[in-house]
Amino acid sequence: xxxxxxxxxxxxxxxxxxxxxxxxxxxxxxxxxxxxxxxxxxxxxxxxxxxxxxxxxxxxxxxxxxxxxxxxxxxxxxxxxxxxxxxxxxxxxxxxxxxxxxxxxxxxxxxxxxxxxxxxxxxxxxxxxxxxxxxxxxxxxxxxxxxxxxxxxxxxxxxxxxxxxxxxxxxxxxxxxxxxxxxxxxxxxxxxxxxxxxxxxxxxxxxxxxxxxxxxxxxxxxxxxxxxxxxxxxxxxxxxxxxxxxxxxxxxxxxxxxxxxxxxxxxxxxxxxxxxxxxxxxxx
Length: 284
What we know:
Blueprint: E1 17-21, H1 26-37, E2 41-46, H2 51-57, E3 60-63, H3 69-83, E4 86-91, H4 107-128, E5 132-141, H5 154-174, E6 180-186, H6 204-212, H7 222-233, E7 244-247, H8 257-264
Parallel strand pairs: 1-2, 1-4, 2-3, 4-5, 5-6, 6-7
């Protein structure tokens, strides 16, 4: 039996014009590399200079503060001016500016998280969508902590929860014009921009995340998220819209056995002599 010919390339993003915000390092740079390696045209936006990375990937760089409307509009228009269209927006730019008890809330840190993490995504959608044709897609990077908040990160948790609902709102509004909007909720990544954590430097959050994971006792990698972005950016994901997809090794499913045993300090197992496992007496 002969092999079929002219099979479509899976997750094909060749020649798609992709804007990635927050692409200077960390997850944003990994996403950019993944898309470029698979043939996409890149426009990299960041408050820092991404020229070196853009040159390496055959794309272009635009200095952009995602909280400034005019700069975000320029970023999107640059993609259209340079490549003739805009197919994919990855709203990746984000920060975690403040940690501590909510009773000691830092107003400046709270506002910074909301401005960059929420307003930045909203402005990206505002200025990208009118420049997109049917079949285009917007991918927002939220967080597991928008679904499952963790103590001491109130502003970050709240901002990422807002991104989740903003994603659904945008999907409902833009669906009729053929633009899909989805969000990723990653957690436990080893790259150096995740919640300010640095590769190889101990952080208590690492231990919690490893315990929370359901089938691997390790942290995830930025590549795990970039692979999903790659899929969502392709036409293979044409029927995926308004979805909030956790990239968390099942941490959002509920308490893992490892976390339960760490909390109680012993193995979590039933024995035959547990009294409540006995059948109740039957009246004769």
